[in-house]
Amino acid sequence: MSLPLGFCSTFTTTSPPQPQPQPSLKSSVPFLQTVSFRPCLKKKKVVVTYATASEPVAEKKRAPRGFSKPRPVSPEMKEFLGGRTEIPRTEVLKVIWAHIKENNLQDPANKRVIVCDEKLKKIFGQRDQVGFLEIAGLISPHFKKAEN
Where are the alpha helices (DSSP H) in 29-131? Predict the structure, then answer.
């Protein structure tokens, strides 16, 4: 008979121990004797296998897609960029932010607002102020659709 006690213990039922002289007290109930008392310390075996390729696979450099793909730009954007005709949107945003930082065009009271100079007004549709989250939307019309 086993008793779950949170650790491994083994109990067995046996006949009563060798009778010792006791005055007229005989019991027919079996006694439990511990055979072994030890905590379960079983270690889990973890086997890690690594797959190795027989030949190294040469990685192919993928052509840029989406926002990182160079697109033709409008004449206004071309003038702002200094003559570049194709550029990815991500690069345009970097150039615009560099121009904003160089010329200190952020509003000192609210850094999220950009005060447009003459160069930025040509790109942002003659607006005097632009929120920094609006920049990506305002440059979209300056990118021509690519023919597939």
Answer: 75-81, 89-102, 118-123
